[in-house]
Specification:
Length: 415
Amino acid sequence: MDTVPNKAPIPASGSPASTEDATTRPSAPLQYRVVAKCGVTKARVGVMSVRHADVDTPVFMPVGTQGTLKGVLPEQLLALDCRIMLGNTYHLGMRPGTTVLEKAGGLHRFMGWPRALLTDSGGFQMVSLLQLAEITEQGVRFQSPYDGSECMLTPERSMEIQNAIGADIMMQLDDVVKTTTTGPRVEEAMHRTIRWLDRSIGAHARDTEQSIFPIVQGGLQPDLRRVCAAELTKRNTRGFAVGGLSGGESKDEFWRTVHLCTDLLPEDKPRYLMGVGFAADLVVCVALGIDMFDCVFPTRTARFGCALTRAGQINLKQRAFAQDMRPIEDDCDCSTCRTYTRAYLHHIVTVEPVACSIVSVHNVAFQLRLMGDMRDAIQQGRFPAFVKSYMAVRFPDDTVPQWIRDALAAVNVQL
């Protein structure tokens, strides 16, 4: 990662989606208001206003790790009315680096994306690239997967890169351990995450434009999650994330941890569950009170020829689709479903590069439409009925997994 001069001015990143938006953007870099609540579950609808967009929540955020969503153009995301997407601090800091990002005026301008951006701090790479990393109190020493060179990612350096990227929402650097880890390492990571938050806040150079979200850690231990949430909420931040899940834990442990964390976090600030993207998980976790989600799943599974539907994932490579002249989903109005049949997609998936783009557009549209349907159901006072209907389609013949039944029962929805 190249070095940003300590006193060099960082140019404003990007521009609002329109001139009209520029005159109506809030003075604070992030404002959140709840506009509707479910009377049965913990689900709610909110509006999160940042410099580049008003984001309706609950929201699914597509992941563009390197500053691009694989197979999908920014204008295609705009056509789907996507309001916010992700970039990754570690990878963008490595390539193209902060010098290029500063010269471009930030990632918004560099990638041609006018709406909101959130950046992951790079902490997840402690797990995904663990064989290349050494974790100390100072930070994380990495061996670059690109050229083998060594670099140190500290909380301060993570903030420096994210300030240069110019994302509307930045994640603190946290000490991430696999969820299946036990013993003193989990508590060590939780306390270090709190210390690193304070260092991140101290290093943040653009607080009038960008917002830091702390990350609640503590593994699968409720007492540690309580301690971490209590400490993080003492800091004056504009939102919070729940981290360290979807890493191999049981679904029963997963939902119970989410349920606990949403009880511990403030109601007047957005709650972001990191790395969760399976449709059934999204429905359950909205019921448990989560507002924001991200995952590479929709585009990654598209590259293998798999499309998302309300009834579950379908593998378009299967011979059963060779003469199927229906769209992926009959009631989907995305450009893919308006234009292409399952038979055509069967013919090109995993063979022609364009197939990745065509299926990815549908999969992202599916995720965004699911979130919109949930927002509508909450606002119309029919969210529990929506959940029951969704689960009946996704798991026919009374095959709903027990963990889903238990999670929904915890918020008063009996399947």
